[in-house]
């Protein structure tokens, strides 16, 4: 499936949305604010932030917040790109759970991680999550 690449202007919008979303993070326990912004198949940008909970396992990461909100509010079908911002000196890659959820909506999506330092990570989800389990596996099983 051919996928378009975000323009430099779209990347700039994604980066700004991720930085802004991090300012809304609810992180009273870790103090590790994360913001994410996804670009969908209709060129809409959806932000998300991490939200912690006193019962630690019930918190939600920024990437998943963006995906779940976009699906609930706009019927998200496909993610083209995600930008993840952390207020750190070096960029941070998405956690395993987020990689799995992102895979559901964009197994080949572009991933950019940015920070307060000069470095960034530019990669693809299939490089971060090789041999991923996803919807295609269920389709293959049903066809058998």
UniProtKB/TrEMBL annotation:
The keyword Zinc applies. Keywords: Hydrolase, Metal-binding, Zinc. It comes from the Bacteria. Its EC number is 3.5.4.5. GO terms for biological process: nucleobase-containing small molecule metabolic process; pyrimidine-containing compound metabolic process. The keyword Translocase does not apply. One of its GO terms (cellular component) is cytosol. Substrate binds at residues 50-56. It catalyses: 2'-deoxycytidine + H2O + H(+) = 2'-deoxyuridine + NH4(+); cytidine + H2O + H(+) = uridine + NH4(+). The active site is at 63 (proton donor). GO terms for molecular function: cytidine deaminase activity; identical protein binding; zinc ion binding. It is an enzyme of class 3 (hydrolase). PANTHER family: CYTIDINE DEAMINASE. This is Cytidine deaminase. It comes from Aquitalea magnusonii. The lineage of its organism: Bacteria, Pseudomonadati, Pseudomonadota, Betaproteobacteria, Neisseriales.
């Amino acid at each position: 499936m051919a996928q378009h690449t975000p323009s430099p202007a779209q990347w700039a919008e994604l980066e700004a949305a991720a930085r802004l979303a991090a300012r809304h993070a609810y992180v009273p326990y870790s103090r590790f604010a994360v913001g994410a912004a996804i670009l969908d198949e209709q060129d809409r940008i959806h932000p998300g932030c991490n939200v912690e909970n006193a019962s630690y396992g019930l918190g939600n990461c920024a990437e998943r917040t963006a995906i779940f909100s976009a699906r609930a509010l706009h019927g998200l079908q496909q993610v083209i790109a995600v930008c993840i911002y952390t207020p750190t000196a070096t960029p941070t890659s998405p956690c395993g759970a987020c990689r799995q959820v992102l895979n559901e909506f964009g197994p080949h999506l572009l991933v950019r991680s940015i920070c307060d330092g000069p470095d960034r990570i530019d990669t693809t989800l299939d490089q971060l999550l090789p041999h991923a389990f996803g919807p295609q596996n269920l389709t293959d099983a049903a066809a058998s």
